[in-house]
Amino acid sequence: MTYDFEFFDTPLSRERGDSIKWTQFGPDVVPLWIADMDFRSCQEITEALTRRAQEGCFGYSRDSRAAIDAMVAYHREHYGWEIDPDWVVPQPGVVTSLNLFCKLLHEMRPERSDVFINEPVYHHFMSAAVLQHVRERKVSLSMHGAPLPDVSKLDGRGAGGWMLCNPQNPLGHLWDAKELRQILDFAEAHGLLVASDEIHGGLVLDEPYTYLPLMTQARSDAERNRLMAFVAPSKTWNVPGLGCAFAIVPDPVLREHFTRNYDQLIPPINLFGWIGAEAAYRFGEPWRLGMLAYLRRNRALLQKAVADWGLPLCDLRATYLAFLDCTSLLPALGTESPRDFFLRHGVAVHDGAIFGAPGWVRINIATQTALLRTALERMGNALAGLPR
Ligand SMILES: Cc1ncc(COP(=O)(O)O)c(C=O)c1O
After folding, report:
1. To test the ligand 1 pocket, which listed residue (95, 96, 98, 231) has its Cβ within 8 A of the most ligand atoms?
2. Which of 63, 172, 279, 281 could form a disulfide with 45 if both were Cys (CB 3.0 to 4.6 A apart)?
3. Domains detected in the chain
4. What does each C-alpha distance from 281 to 53, 202, 233, 239, 328 come to in angstroms?
């Protein structure tokens, strides 16, 4: 199979059926909101799933050592990250892991369970804190230029953890070694546990930027043991419907806590999740590289459009989720949010407010270029009609 532009140009029929992305707003709206791609899946993944489906055997399955080994080998080969398979706690999703991390802070550190969260960020960071009864300490990121504030000036007293999104959704930012070191030093100084959601790690759009797994930056075993990371094939290969993720927890006591919760509260990974994950990590690289090339083309189209509109866009280095500053439109929009305004003109984008940035919108560019072009035309026409 050749994963060229022609492959990714071929529309996938998602209008019918059960796609959240495609059924939410009806057929007249171009859906560029939830983080789900419109691309046909990697053929090798489809074949592995089909083979298993044809066997007709769907009983309880064991954790797949083959899938864990494939994930470990992939991270070693691509990022030089040595993950001991014993550190891996299978999870049905990364949001589960975010919740388990907050739950762990609440249960293991009741006196100091506050958690630092960089905002704006994927909204389930905040909801995990609320649901698991820990208090968020917001670290506001700058959305123009270097995002991280001077971390050493934060007050770490009474805090127990930090939740990082690496790469950052929705800024599309990749944390570099210096930024990660600042967070690690701060965590060390205040005895914080750090959880890093690295679900978008495989979606770095171009050189010279690279995804640095937080754990690879630890300078000692003691430092590493205060960290945990959440990885999954779901964003990179667009298999979130298969429900397979991995919490990587080197410290045995923290891992035992995670595992206990996993066994008692959370269902095991679905048989097809294991099979899809193994195929993605073992055979999915050509699809991933073709998909990234396609995303670069879409990003260029978007950048050109927003330059014409005169609106600032975050520098999209990783993920397929572009973050657009529409705050200058607010006076003209009155009480309507930019998201509602674009929806009224036939394009569904995500409202920045849910990530902590009102007046911004997040645009998912992982769709056919022709469809993105239609959406950008609609948005441009809508903007042209606004008094500015
Ligand atoms: C940063 C981040 N974490 C987690 C998730 C969702 O993970 P899961 O579907 O595995 O729970 C998303 C989905 O968009 C995300 O962007």
Report:
1. 95
2. 279
3. 5-43+285-384 (3.90.1150.10), 57-283 (3.40.640.10)
4. 20, 11, 7, 12, 43
